[in-house]
Structure formats: C-alpha cells, structure tokens
TrEMBL record:
GO molecular function: GTP binding
Protein's name in the database: GTPase Der
Quaternary state and interactors: Associates with the 50S ribosomal subunit.
Gene3D superfamilies for the chain: 3.30.300.20, P-loop containing nucleotide triphosphate hydrolases
Family classification: Belongs to the TRAFAC class TrmE-Era-EngA-EngB-Septin-like GTPase superfamily. EngA (Der) GTPase family.
Residue positions binding GTP 1: 9-16, 56-60, 119-122
UniProt domain EngA-type G: residue ranges: 3-167, 183-358
Entries under InterPro entries matching the protein: G_ENGA, GTP-bd, GTPase_Der, KH_dom-like, KH_dom-like_a/b, P-loop_NTPase, Small_GTP-bd
Function: GTPase that plays an essential role in the late steps of ribosome biogenesis.
The entry's keywords: GTP-binding, Nucleotide-binding, Repeat, Ribosome biogenesis
Binding-site residues, GTP 2: 189-196, 236-240, 301-304
Organism for this UniProt entry: Minwuia thermotolerans
CDD domains noted in UniProt: EngA1, EngA2
NCBIfam families according to UniProt: GTPase_EngA, small_GTP
Length: 454
C-alpha cells in the first residue's frame, strides 16, 4: 500500500476516534482522559475507494528531555517521517489553542504535506472554530466529526488533491494485492516484564515505547513484520495485573484490549520476569490462553540477571507440571530482550508451536496409536462394565480436537482421558498447544433391528 497518512495533534482532540473510524474497527482505546495513546498504532484505512496505511500517534507535547512525554514525541516524529500526508487535528468546538498554533508552525517547517482537520464539527457549533484555522496558513481546513463519520468525503478529496500520484498508486496496489496470510503472534505478561523491549529487539528497531516506568503500553499495538520470509503480525499488549488490583477505568480497558488480542492470536508468548518467574498471575494468563485454544510459548526475560539459571529452569518446569497440567511440555525460552542474547531461539519455538496447532493426523495413524495405548492400559470399568472404545478421529485443528467413539454412554474417567491426551502430545508433538477430546457414542445399526424383532 503506497499511501501513508499520519494523524497528529495535541492530546484529547479525537485522533484515536478518527483512526478507528478510518480502519472500521475499534482498534485504539478511546477515553475522555488525555494522553491515552502512547505508542504509534498502524492500520489499513479506507474512505470509499481510497485505501491507505494510517498511523495514530500520541498527543504532541513540548518535551525534549528523557521523560516519557519526550519519548512519545519521538515516536510521533518517526510517524511523520514515514507519512506521505499529515493530518493536523484540533477540536473545533474548543477553538484553536496556542499549542495547536505552535505545532502548526512546526509542521510548516517539515517536508510532509499537511491537511488541517477540524474535529467535532457536527451541527453548526464547530463552524466558528473551523474558520479560525485559516490563520494557520496551511490551506482550507476540513470540518469532520470523527465520532459520527461526517465530512469524510471532504477529507478524501483533500487527500487526493494533495497527493494525487500517491493515491493513484495506492489504488493500483490495492487491486493487485494477494498477500500471504500472516501468523498472528501476541506477547502478554505482567507489567514491566519487557514485552515492548522484546518486540523492538525482534524487529530490530525502536518501534515501541520502552522505559523503567511500569505500564507504559496501554492498548494492543499490532506490527507487521517478516521473519525468514514469513509474514508475522505482532501484538504488543498492556501489562496484566491480578483482577483485584485493577481499579482504574483506563487500566480495565487496557487489560480487556490485551485479552482480545489473545482471542485473535494464533500463538501467544507469555513473557515472565526471570527474577520473579511464573507467579500466580502468569499461571492465570497461561490458563486463559489455553482455554481460548491458542498455542502457547513461555518466554523468560532478563535471564542475564540470574546466577543460577539451570536451577531456576528446573523449578519452572516443575511448577508447570504441578500447577498447569494442560501445558505439559510447553516450550520455555530464556533470553535477555535488553542485550538480545537468546532472543533468536524464540521464533523457532513459535513456528514449531504454530505447526503443532495446525496439525492434522490421519485417522488410520490415530487408531494404530489407540490400539497400542489401550493394549498397554485397557479402559477402566464404568458402572461395573468395561468401557469400550471403538475408534478415534481428528474432528478439527487450530487447536487439535479429537472425537473418541465408544459403544456405551457415560463419561470417560478423567484419569484415563488424561492418559490418552498426554499420549497424543508425546506421540504427535503437541507440546504447547491445547488438546481437546470429545466423547461420542457410535451408532449400532443392529440395535434398532433387534428391537423391531422383539
């Protein structure tokens, strides 16, 4: 997609609302609290036939030190450098502020073409504020309502007038697009585990805000990436604390957004801090991931801070075996996202888990395996009768789901079901993925005939 558009402006003028409107989804968190957006977020936007890449940015602040606000501004400057067109957005109902005028002056000094966007122009209340924008000397202001979707046709006309060659090329590229579907990979974990640092290390650039402050990431940020020629869409998520500790509205929204990323993902990397590995909240997140049917890889960050790595790894594997039986054999990858040591082992583990998540096992092979398992340990007695198993087949993949057909009703004892599921994991390499088994009673065609004869 050739055309890139960045949305800029001071905090709380509606940038994320416009971003959501253009991409047609509620991807960005929206709240009345200023400064919700911190990282720059990308999506595929559309107005009518015009398609483009759109970047949502943090609110512009006058900060040039080592503070979080200064790092947010640097992310916005990088978005501007990538953009073909910049939308400088302001609140028309509040009117132009000195900060709006200051940033308009800054944008005049840049090489990127600028469109002034006056938001909240529904009805006539915003018209006086829209007219104020002429004094900025950046052309005709476009009046819109991001919340209600008004004025987008005028915005499309302004974009096409400002970058006609880019918009034509974007249309040609969109018509010829047939991209390979990316692997959807989410990184989750408690606050300050190093999720954003890890993703920056993986993609080789400072794409996401990082720092010593806990909870920098607020909403789930998706990044398109290539690993060894394979397209990957990475999701960075907000740190997730125990539910009892989450009391602020914005943090609740951020946690809900992170859980939605798990639902949309195919593989989830649960990132834990090596100095506080696999606490209760980590195990809760691992359990939620498997219950959602996603493949799981556990990443242990800050491994370089440990002196007794092998002993810690043994303890981690023991805890997983004892407290998370459904994650038996889940891959654990230890590394330092800050130095990069060991990070190269993560994606091979992810790809292996992804392949296991997609596996299809032929029915004949499954039943040869089932014969061996039942011969080694026959099914137990249920209500005084032997539980008879007919055959096993795979009902679906993503995650691997198997249907076990029996000649009698009732439930298979839990211990024997665990025996079969663990055997499936070992025999077919299903470590790190949830394995589901459904019990089905096979139909006996002679039973009905016998009933009629009687």
């Amino acid at each position: 997609m050739s055309l890139t558009i960045a949305i800029l402006g001071r905090p709380n003028v509606g940038k994320s609302t416009l971003f959501n409107r253009l991409v047609g989804k509620r991807l960005a968190l929206v709240d009345d609290l200023p400064g919700v957006t911190r990282d720059r977020r990308e999506g595929e936007g559309r107005i009518g036939t015009l398609r483009f890449r759109v970047i949502d940015t943090a609110g512009l602040e006058e900060a040039f030190d080592d503070s979080l606000e200064a790092r947010m501004r640097q992310q916005t400057e990088m978005a501007l450098a990538e953009a073909d067109v910049a939308l400088l957005m302001y609140d028309a109902r509040a009117g132009l502020t000195p900060l709006d005028s200051h940033f308009a002056g800054w944008l005049r000094e840049q090489s990127t073409p600028v469109i002034i966007v006056a938001n909240k122009c529904e009805g006539r209340a915003g018209e006086p504020g829209r007219l104020e924008a002429y004094e900025l000397g950046l052309g005709d202001p476009v009046g819109i309502s991001a919340e209600h979707g008004e004025g987008l046709v005028d915005l499309k006309d302004a974009i096409e007038a400002l970058a006609p060659e880019r918009t034509k090329r974007a249309g040609r590229d969109a018509a010829g697009e047939e991209a390979e579907k990316p692997l959807l990979l989410a990184v989750v974990g408690r606050p300050n585990a190093g999720k954003s640092t890890l993703i920056n290390r993986m993609i080789g650039e400072d794409r996401l805000l990082t720092g010593p402050e806990a909870g920098i990431t607020r909403d789930s940020i998706s990044i398109n990436w290539q690993w060894n020629g394979h397209p990957v869409r990475l999701f960075d998520t907000a740190g997730m604390r125990r539910k009892s500790r989450v009391n602020r509205k914005l943090e609740k929204l951020a946690v809900a957004d992170g859980l939605r990323a798990v639902q949309f993902a195919e593989v989830v990397v649960l990132l834990a801090d090596a100095t506080q590995p696999l606490e209760r909240q980590d195990l809760v997140l691992a359990r939620q991931t498997l219950e959602e049917g996603r493949a799981l890889v556990i990443g242990i960050n800050k491994w370089d801070l440990l002196d007794d790595g092998p002993e810690v790894m043994r303890e981690l594997r023991y805890r997983l075996e004892q407290q998370l039986a459904q994650a038996r054999g889940v891959p654990i990858v230890a590394f330092s996202a800050l130095t990069g040591r060991g990070v190269d082992k993560l994606m091979p583990a992810v790809i292996k888990a992804y392949k296991a998540w997609n596996i299809r096992v032929p029915t004949a092979r499954l039943n040869r395996w089932l014969e061996e398992m039942t011969a080694r340990h026959p099914p137990p007695l249920v209500n005084g009768r032997r539980f008879r198993i007919r055959y096993l087949t795979q009902a679906k993949s993503r995650p691997p789901t198997f249907a076990l057909f029996t000649s009698s009703g009732g439930e298979l004892p839990d211990a024997y079901e665990r025996y079969l599921v663990n055997g499936l994991r070992e025999a077919f390499g299903l470590q790190g993925v949830p394995v589901r088994m459904m019990l089905r009673k096979s139909h006996n065609p002679y039973e009905e005939k016998a009933g009629r004869r009687r």
